[in-house]
Amino acid sequence: MNILAIGAHPDDIETSCGGTLAKYAKAGHKVFTATATNGNVGSSTLSMEEIAAIRKEEARRAAAHIGAEYICLDYDDEMFFEDKTARLDFINLVRYCKADVILTHNPHDYNPDHELTSKIINDIAVMIPVEKIKTKAPAYDKIPIIVYFEPVNGLGFVPTEYVDITDTIDIKRAMCREHKSQISWMQDNYKDTMTGKDFFEDYDIIAKYRGIQCGVPYAEGFRMANDAFRVIPYRILP
Ligand SMILES: [Zn+2]
Question: What are the CA-CA distances from residue 131 to residues 107, 210, 230 (Å)?
Fold first, then answer.
């Protein structure tokens, strides 16, 4: 299968479903990672152009751990809005990846870029095979299956699907740690809660917590997008 994980920002994917993507890759599936934005507000010292270039390179390196191709749609961080161009960009991306499965944000999350990325993916799923909707990548005859990963810090999210990532947690950690720029950014920008803290450690705790729920050392939790034309009677996660 072809698997596309799309998040709003560089580091969303690795923290939320990096272990699962590593499992898909190990099993021989083709994996793509993508971000809607380039993360260009994620620094208190560098210019927007400089931090965007760094963050895209960090995302590319993270993807390389599992042999995945990284694609950035290059929208502005925190200023991502839906219009016809954005919809067509998303359709083109999914068609380029010939995605069978798409992993993306939960419809309800803390950040508007996250929620809009999720919304557009769910909106366009049925448009992928529609030939009259023209994009650079051609239409293909499939409505991709959509899986939601958990919102940041797992708030209000009860998984219905679990993936045992015990054998890929080290790969997930390595993928997360490619996003070096974000450790100092989080400390600079959220001084009251983040000073001296390596926020990637939080994702180990979440993986342990989801692991407790399903009886393994480490797990990632998901929910299926159960909307018309993408409900399946079998399991698609590894
Ligand atoms: Zn994000």
Answer: 27, 41, 19
Distance 153 CA to ligand 1 centre (A): 12
| Ligand 1 center from residue 140 Cα (angstroms) | 29
Query: Is 196 within the bounds of a domain?
Result: yes
pTM for this structure? 0.96
> Domain holding 147: CATH number?
3.40.50.10320
Ligand 1 centroid–CA 79 distance in Å is 12
pLDDT digits (tens, 9 = 90+) for 203-220: 999 999 999 999 999 999
Whether 230 is covered by a domain: the verdict is no
Question: Does a structural domain hold residue 25?
Answer: yes
Domain count, the chain: 1
For residue range 156-171, what is the model confidence (pLDDT) as tens digits? 999 999 999 999 999 9
Distance 43 CA to ligand 1 centre (A): 14
The distance in angstroms from the start CA to the end CA of the chain is 11
Determine the distance separating the centroid of ligand 1 and the alpha carbon of 177, expressed in angstroms.
15
**Structural domain containing residue 45:** 2-224
**CA-closest candidate to residue 8, choices 77, 63, 106, 71:** 77
